[in-house]
Specification:
Shape of chain B: globular
Mean pLDDT of chain B: 97
Radius of gyration of chain B: 13 Å
Helix content of chain B: under 10%
Number of helices of chain A: 0
Order of helices and strands of chain B: EEEEEEEEEEE
Strand order of the largest sheet of chain A: 2-10-9-4-5-6
Number of strands of chain A: 10
Radius of gyration of chain A: 13 Å
Structural class of chain A: mainly beta
Oligomer: heterodimer
Strand content of chain A: over 45%
Chain lengths: 121, 108
Amino acid sequence: QVHLVQSGSELKKPGASVKVSCKASGYTFSSFAMNWVRQAPGQGLEWMGWINSNTGNPTYAQGFTGRFVFSLDTSVSTAYLQISSLKPEDTAVYYCARGGYYGSRGWFDPWGQGTLVTVSS
Amino acid sequence: EIVLTQSPGTLSLSPGERATLSCRPSQSVYSNYLAWYQQKPGQAPRLLIYGASSRATGIPDRFSGSESGTEFTLTISRLEPEDFAVYYCQQYGSSPITFGGGTKVEIK
């Protein structure tokens, strides 16, 4: 069974950094893209970008360049999202979601359970 | 960027009724690469439909997706209590991938 399990909630101060993990199981990790999606409190879903799990090449959506970094550790089938210089407006639930086969266009399935990142002084 | 407009914003229905949700793209969606997701409070989204009309594994057949002209539709034939949730459409055919704003299906 395909599963994505994310790390737990984080409370950070403005200016700090956070690293969210997403551990995959039940499939060949390097064969599928990994996407990241943000959901601010009470809001809809916003695609942040994706990383090619075979090559490690990341693609960032507009608005998620500079402070956001996608990375992988293929030895433990885990994807990471790091956010630096955190701002209060980064407060959101962050989801990882498996995408297309070898980076091809694909729907998102499954999703991780989400990681709440709260930025507050 | 393809903008997806979902309507209505909220749908108030009773269990057993039929729900019809609309998703209109601002431009053509490549190869009908359109998905629908269900999200319940405190939970991650769940894939229902991909390719505009293909049901995901384990999704009951009361959920169906269709495309007509420039509009995509998610239909829930008879609402069950567990179907009251927020539904999002998504296009994954063009970058950036985009989501609609969501339709909340609430109990009347």
